[in-house]
Q: What sequence folds into this?
């Protein structure tokens, strides 16, 4: 498979009243063409910010990408300015994004058709009539009943699930190489969530589009994705295929996350404690305060790089890597 | 939509009736008997109680209050505003003459505020923290905090007294002498417009900043639109919604401000008429002018509401 | 209370990034946070200092002012500024600087009393309207609409000319234009607060209506109320100045800035300072109050933060 996106050393900071927050800290990962990967972690672990950084949609100020590179189809995106023509051509054209908030992500004062058509006229330079035709066609592909009529509706006339279908359809319009779904289904009811996931899965398979699923729901990941990156406190702490991680989680945080997925006949075990403050973090392992495996040396040594374990499996847990415990 | 307009019209009518009753009652509470003032002003030397009663009867001031009110209101709907107690002119006619003057200045000021306010606000928000933004913020703060009469006096001092560029008082209608009218209008229009410009600019600025942080603006960026398109297509319309609702208040500000501006620049408009009538306790004039001013305000806020509904598809007319 | 999130809100490439507060921020002393946010902007600090200085000036006018407000020097009428009369004298030979210093008393007292009066009346009516629901509420709100439809300066002119000229008359004349604003504010607040779970809970447990209103709803309206009151200080001071300027407010010889402007206006050609200086005083005071109001809004009402204009 062809390499599509390589992110390396990506670091994004936010200036807040109380100090600088490293929301994304030295994050590296890659996406191959047509691949579906998952990015998993608790709220506020930096998974959304990392994806917004790739798209250069970080509000600045207060946010700023301070280090790293984002290589997409051989171009380093971070070399382009945030509002440069090159970046605008990529956003919505080559990479598109579906956001978490279906209720607020559509412009309330514009019809569905105009909002969708805008993407087409922008990137493909086609006229409004054809843009409308294609938008209506896309609406029917994403399962909106009576698309010709719905196209002239305003967002408030549609339900949350419908709006998210519109967002998914909008993201597919220009046949991008990659879609980032940032908690795209989190705000929806369970059944609608399942329908939408199924829809996105079908669509990306049909058009051979890569998909990055950002979620805190490991259940979603297990079903659809090929590889998973687990994020904690701004860092990727473990990554691997679903099979590898499920069978053999190396990092105690990944273990904990897996124990939080409901399974028949098993008790849910919550991870104790809260995620750490991201201001002035020491270079030690961020999970240290909550870790049940921690060793004395963990307090002294900086957290290791993502280190190869086997196959596609990488981890940052030095206890496990160095075999300091037989647990 | 039609039922909505009808309902709003009824609502507007109710407001007018309430205001007219309130004004009518308030005016009756004014100190000073207008008949006595009239007599002392016209310097009728020999007055008998009979003459006073006759005059009172003549002016209709001896009937019960509700009758006086009903009579006045019905007459007013027919376009008859009565005659001035003090100077015996036909109020309707006089308002007709003066309303043109006030409208010329007021409407120009309102339109300038309506155009300039949002533009300044948008520019200021888009260039947040830059020189333009600071400049607009300073101007807006001055416009909101400086008393209108003081700004007028300052202008008169610099442009009239010192530089001798503009006439310092009076008003000429544009069709009588356009150039004179233009020169005389400049300062009054500026003073009247300053408040609306400042308030609208401030409101627009914060509204644009708020819309800029909305999720759908992020969506617009994510579509690959450039800054110009994001601002023109997505930010402006949405951020003008709260600004539109503000325009009713702006009209009220312009109408109320006419009192001060016309006093400072000695302009024969409705505002000056109001102050003069008030200082001489000329009831019917005060009543009529207040009701007319309220009518202007109520009708314009009706227009504003309809405009809002047209701009915001989420508003349903039921 | 659900999890608190600290939203980093910024324009530009839109979007809002939620970061859990607990995870970023150690717990902070609420008062220290207030002070820090309040004084974060230099202009707010300046405004606050000016307000304090003018209040001090009003209190200690007798000590500070070089002359009494009514002290006439008929040999020295319309004098140019010099070392005795720093800003010159007016048409009756009264020291302009001293009259401006004494004028702060009128401005501040009218401002404070007006705001307190209108806030008290408006809040009470607003609470009643918001809680009553149904016919009473819509009658009150219709009347409020009607009152707000009259241009406020016109309304206070009418009321001021009914009442005796003097501080109390002006206060009532201005307050009557301000209290409908509080009715709307409080009514809106009550409607939204009433939806909250704890009010529902109080109701379902059979708490008395009045008790719910004063124990639960009123405290929740406090922040916007305080902000509104500070903002209205400026409006009240401006209204009083306009009334006095038109000759329907505080009457001479009392030193009121608006009236002084009017008197001085007659001598604009000769002594421009007579009308310009008192007007400047009005503007500085109103500006300072507005800045303090802005700061308070930022510090007290996080919901309104986005609407702050600076």
A:
């Amino acid at each position: 498979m062809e390499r599509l996106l390589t992110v390396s050393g990506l670091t994004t900071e936010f200036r807040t009243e109380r100090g600088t927050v490293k929301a994304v800290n030295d994050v590296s990962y890659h996406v191959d063409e047509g691949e579906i990967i998952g990015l998993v972690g608790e709220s506020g672990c930096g998974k959304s910010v990392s994806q917004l950084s790739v798209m250069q949609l970080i509000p600045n100020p207060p946010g700023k990408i301070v280090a790293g590179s984002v290589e997409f189809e051989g171009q380093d995106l971070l070399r382009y300015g945030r509002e440069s023509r090159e970046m605008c051509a990529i956003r919505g054209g080559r990479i598109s994004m579906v956001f978490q908030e279906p209720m607020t992500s559509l412009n309330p004062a514009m019809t569905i058709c105009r909002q969708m058509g805008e993407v087409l006229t922008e990137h493909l330079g086609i006229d409004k009539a054809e843009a409308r035709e294609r938008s209506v066609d896309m609406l029917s592909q994403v399962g909106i009943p009576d698309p010709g009529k719905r196209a002239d509706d305003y967002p408030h006339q549609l339900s949350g699930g419908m709006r998210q279908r519109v967002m998914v359809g909008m993201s597919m319009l220009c046949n991008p190489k990659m879609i980032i779904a940032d908690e795209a289904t989190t705000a929806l009811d369970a059944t609608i969530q399942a329908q939408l996931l199924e829809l996105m899965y079908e669509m990306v398979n049909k058009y051979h589009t890569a998909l990055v699923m950002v979620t805190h729901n490991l259940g979603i990941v297990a079903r659809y994705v090929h590889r998973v990156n687990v994020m904690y406190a701004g860092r990727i702490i473990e990554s691997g295929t679903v099979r590898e991680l499920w069978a053999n989680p190396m990092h105690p945080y990944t273990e904990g996350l897996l124990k939080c997925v409901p399974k028949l006949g098993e008790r849910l075990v919550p991870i104790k404690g809260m995620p750490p403050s991201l201001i002035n973090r020491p270079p030690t392992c961020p999970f240290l305060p909550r870790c049940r495996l921690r060793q004395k040396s963990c307090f002294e040594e900086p957290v290791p790089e993502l280190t190869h374990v086997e196959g596609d499996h990488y981890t940052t847990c030095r206890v496990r890597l160095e075999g300091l415990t037989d647990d | 939509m039609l039922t909505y307009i009808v309902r709003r019209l009824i609502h507007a009518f109710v407001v007018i009736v309430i205001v007219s009753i309130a004004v009518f009652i308030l005016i009756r509470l004014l100190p000073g008997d207008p008949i006595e003032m009239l007599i002392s002003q016209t310097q009728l030397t020999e007055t008998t109680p009979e003459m006073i009663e006759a005059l009172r009867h003549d002016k209709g001031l001896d009937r019960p209050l509700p009758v006086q009110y009903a009579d006045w209101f019905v007459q007013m709907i027919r376009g008859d505003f009565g005659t001035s107690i003090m100077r015996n002119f036909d109020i309707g006619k006089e308002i007709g003459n003066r309303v043109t003057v006030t409208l010329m200045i007021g409407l120009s000021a309102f339109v300038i505020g309506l155009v300039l306010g949002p533009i300044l606000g948008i520019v200021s928000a888009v260039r947040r923290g830059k020189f333009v933004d600071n400049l607009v913020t300073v101007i807006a703060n001055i416009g909101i905090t400086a008393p209108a009469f003081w700004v007028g006096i300052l202008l008169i001092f610099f442009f009239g007294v010192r530089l001798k560029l503009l006439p310092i008082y009076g008003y000429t209608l544009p069709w009588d002498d356009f150039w004179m009218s233009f020169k005389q209008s400049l300062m009054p229009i500026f003073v009247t417009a300053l408040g609306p410009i400042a308030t609208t600019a401030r409101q627009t600025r914060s509204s644009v900043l708020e819309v800029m942080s909305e999720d759908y603006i992020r969506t617009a960026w994510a579509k690959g639109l450039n800054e110009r398109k994001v601002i023109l297509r997505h930010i402006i319309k949405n951020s003008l919604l709260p600004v539109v609702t503000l325009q009713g208040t702006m009209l009220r500000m312009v109408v109320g401000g006419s009192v001060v501006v016309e006093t400072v620049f000695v302009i024969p408009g409705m505002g000056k008429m109001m102050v003069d009538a008030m200082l001489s306790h000329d009831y019917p004039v005060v009543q009529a002018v207040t009701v007319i001013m309220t009518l202007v305000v109520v009708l314009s806020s009706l227009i504003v509401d309809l405009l809002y509904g047209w701009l915001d598809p989420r508003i349903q007319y039921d | 209370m659900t999890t608190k999130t600290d939203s980093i809100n910024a324009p530009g490439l839109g979007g809002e990034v939620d970061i859990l507060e607990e995870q970023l921020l150690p717990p902070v002393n609420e008062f220290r946070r207030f002070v820090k946010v309040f004084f974060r902007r230099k202009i707010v600090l300046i405004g606050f200092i000016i307000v304090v200085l003018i209040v001090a000036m009003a209190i200690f006018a007798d000590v500070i002012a070089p002359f009494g407000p009514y002290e006439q020097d008929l040999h020295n009428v319309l004098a140019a500024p010099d070392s005795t009369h720093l800003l010159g004298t007016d048409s009756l030979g009264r020291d302009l600087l001293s009259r401006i210093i004494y004028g702060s008393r009128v401005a501040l007292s009218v401002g404070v009393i007006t705001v307190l009066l209108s806030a008290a009346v408006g809040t009470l009516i607003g609470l009643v309207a918001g809680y009553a629901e149904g016919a009473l509420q819509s009658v009150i709100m219709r009347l409020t609409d009607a009152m707000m439809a009259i241009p406020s300066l016109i309304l206070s002119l009418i009321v001021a000319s009914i009442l005796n000229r003097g501080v109390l008359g002006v206060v009532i004349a201005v307050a009557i234009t301000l209290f409908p604003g509080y009715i709307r504010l409080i009514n809106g607040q009550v409607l939204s607060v009433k939806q909250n779970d704890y009010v529902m809970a109080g109701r379902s447990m059979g708490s008395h209506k009045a008790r719910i209103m004063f124990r639960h709803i009123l405290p929740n309206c406090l922040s916007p109320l305080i902000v509104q009151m500070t903002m209205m200080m400026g409006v009240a001071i401006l209204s009083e100045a306009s009334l006095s300027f038109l000759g329907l407010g505080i009457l001479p010889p009392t030193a009121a800035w608006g009236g002084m402007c009017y008197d001085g206006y007659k001598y604009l050609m000769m002594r421009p300072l007579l009308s310009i200086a008192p007007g400047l005083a009005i503007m500085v005071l109103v500006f300072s109050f507005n800045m303090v109001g802005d700061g308070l809004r930022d510090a007290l009402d996080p919901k309104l933060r986005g609407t702050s204009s600076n």
User: Anything to note?
Assistant: Confidence is low (pLDDT under 50) at residues 1-25, 304-310 of chain C.
